[in-house]
Amino acid sequence: MPDYQRPTWDEYFLMLAKLAATRSTCLAFPVGAVVVKDRQVLATGYNGPPSGSPHCIAQGYCYPGLSSCDASKELPSRAVHAEANAIAQAAKHGIATAGASIYVTLEPCLSCLKLSISAGIREIFYETPFNSGESAVARDMFVSEGLVSLQQIHLSEAIAQKAASSLLNPTSVPRPSPPKLDKYS
Predict the structure, then answer these.
(1) Cα–Cα distance between 125 and 122 in angstroms, integer?
(2) b/e per residue 63-90 (b: at least 16 CB within 10 A)
(3) Does the model's pTM come out above 0.85?
(4) CA-to-CA distance for 84 and 110, rounded, in angstroms?
(5) pLDDT digits (tens, 9 = 90+) for 138-180
(6) What is the gyration radius of the CA atoms in the chain, in angstroms?
(7) Would you call 164 exposed, middle or buried from its count of C-beta atoms within 10 A (0-12, 13-18, 19+)?
(8) Nearest to residue 116, comparing CAs of 78, 93, 148?
(9) Which residues does residue 149 pair with via DSSP β-bridges, in sequence order?
(10) Three-class SS string for the chain?
């Protein structure tokens, strides 16, 4: 039998979140999110300005006169976070998120964590840590109260390489047949 490794469900949904992040229009850093229930995708989101607002990447800046979001400490980011966009997409289409999980490329900020909890999302899987200091203390209180669980996950090297190959090459082609063994082998 050929060596064939499928991604775990966590890897699969994290890869979808990473793919959603490629749609991000934020200059600071791309983030993607996927809301999942019963192994079915309910909604996706990525960070960028509200619908109808000019994209930062199209303008080359976040606010008039600023070259990047990091150029000002006075002005907040224009971006709607990926988690908020995914939850808003579900709400816009009448999709309930109670009992769902969310996969995110970046650990949710406290606002998105609270929004996720309020939307009934009880499991959060993330790739990159974000919260520290007082934010981490507040996060940990929500976890200890049993409102949500958070788990950092990563793609295995083999699955990441397979995904990259699948993105670069046609996937809907027949697999090679395994070698035939004679009855005396």
Answers:
(1) 10
(2) beebeebeeeeeeebbbbbbbbbbbbbb
(3) yes
(4) 12
(5) 999 999 999 999 999 999 999 999 999 888 888 788 877 767 7
(6) 20
(7) exposed
(8) 148
(9) 123
(10) CCCCCCCCHHHHHHHHHHHHHCCCCCCCCCCEEEEEECCEEEEEEECECCCCCCCHHHHCCCCCCCCCHHHCCCCCCCCECHHHHHHHHHHHCCCCCCCCEEEEEECCCHHHHHHHHHCCCCEEEEEECCCCHHHHHHHHHHHHCCCCEEEECCCCHHHHHHHHHHHHCCCCCCCCCCCCCCCCC
Q: What is the pLDDT of residues 63-89, one digit of tens each?
A: 777 766 666 667 777 889 999 999 999
Q: Which position has the token pair 């890897």? A: 11
Q: What are phi and psi of 92, to 5 degrees?
A: -60, -30
Cβ 77 vs Cβ 36: under 8 Å: no
Catalytic option among 83, 107, 127, 134: 83
CA distance 36 to 39: 6
Phi and psi of 128, rounded to 5°? -115, 130
What does the block give as tokens for 35?
């809301």
- Residue 17 — φ and ψ, nearest 5°? -65, -40
- Residue 83 bears catalytic tag: yes
The token pair at 81 is: 């976070």
